[in-house]
């Protein structure tokens, strides 16, 4: 295990109340007890206090807990209000080395890491008997990605 992986795993504090595997997220599209469509209050009840939230609401004098569009638990971003005002619409991660779940979530990164190649991802998905298809990038015609399930993209 590299130093970066050790640091990332250590960031998943030993007191984390919930254990989540990114393999389960990829296979089922849920993050432990959290799923798309839940309200902020339901996510807060399931995961506890978030590590960070977008504070643009605070500039307007609103309560940022109630109105923030993004909550972060470690590297996991929970996006609210994209489709329905108070509902979870997206669980997202980017700019990671080895993902971690912050204080609330002991996160097993499975195979997910910054230097994961598409070939390695395809091999792991096949080994896990997880269906996928190759997709073109919306932003770069020379890049392909993988669509797994209805809403998961690697």
Summarize the topology.
Layout: H1 3-11, E1 18-21, H2 22-28, H3 40-47, E2 52-53, H4 56-59, H5 64-67, E3 70-73, E4 76-80, E5 88-92, E6 105-108, H6 118-127, E7 133-136, E8 144-148, E9 152-153
Parallel strand pairs: 1-6
Antiparallel strand pairs: 2-3, 3-4, 4-5, 7-8, 8-9
Summarize the structure.
This protein has helices spanning 3-11, 22-28, 40-47, 56-59, 64-67, 118-127; strands spanning 18-21, 52-53, 70-73, 76-80, 88-92, 105-108, 133-136, 144-148, 152-153. It is α+β, with helices and mostly antiparallel strands.
Order of helices and strands: HEHHEHHEEEEHEEE
> How many structural domains does the protein architecture include?
2
State Rg: 16 Å
Quaternary structure annotation: single chain
Pairing-aware structural class of the strands and helices? alpha+beta
**Sheet with the most strands?**
4 strands, antiparallel
Helicity range of the residues?
25-40%
Average the pLDDT over all residues and give the rounded result.
79
Low confidence ranges = 1-14
Sheet-strand content, in percent, reads 15-25%
- Total of helices: 6
Overall form: globular
Number of E-type strands: 9
Cα(first) to Cα(last) distance is: 23 Å
Identify the strand order in the major beta sheet.
Answer: 2-3-4-5
């Amino acid at each position: 295990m590299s130093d970066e992986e050790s640091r990332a795993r250590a960031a998943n504090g030993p007191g984390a109340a919930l254990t989540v595997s990114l393999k389960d997220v990829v296979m089922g599209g849920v993050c432990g007890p959290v799923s798309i469509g839940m309200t902020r209050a339901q996510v807060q009840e399931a995961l506890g206090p978030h590590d960070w939230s977008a504070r643009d609401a605070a500039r307007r004098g609103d309560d940022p807990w109630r109105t923030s569009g993004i909550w972060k638990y470690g590297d996991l971003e929970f996006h609210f209000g994209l489709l329905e005002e108070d509902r979870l619409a997206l669980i997202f991660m980017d700019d990671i080395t080895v993902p971690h779940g912050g204080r609330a979530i002991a996160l097993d990164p499975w195979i997910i890491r910054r230097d994961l190649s598409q070939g390695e991802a395809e091999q792991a998905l096949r080994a896990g008997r997880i269906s996928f298809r190759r997709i073109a990038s919306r932003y770069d015609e020379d890049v392909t990605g993988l669509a797994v399930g209805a809403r998961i993209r690697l």
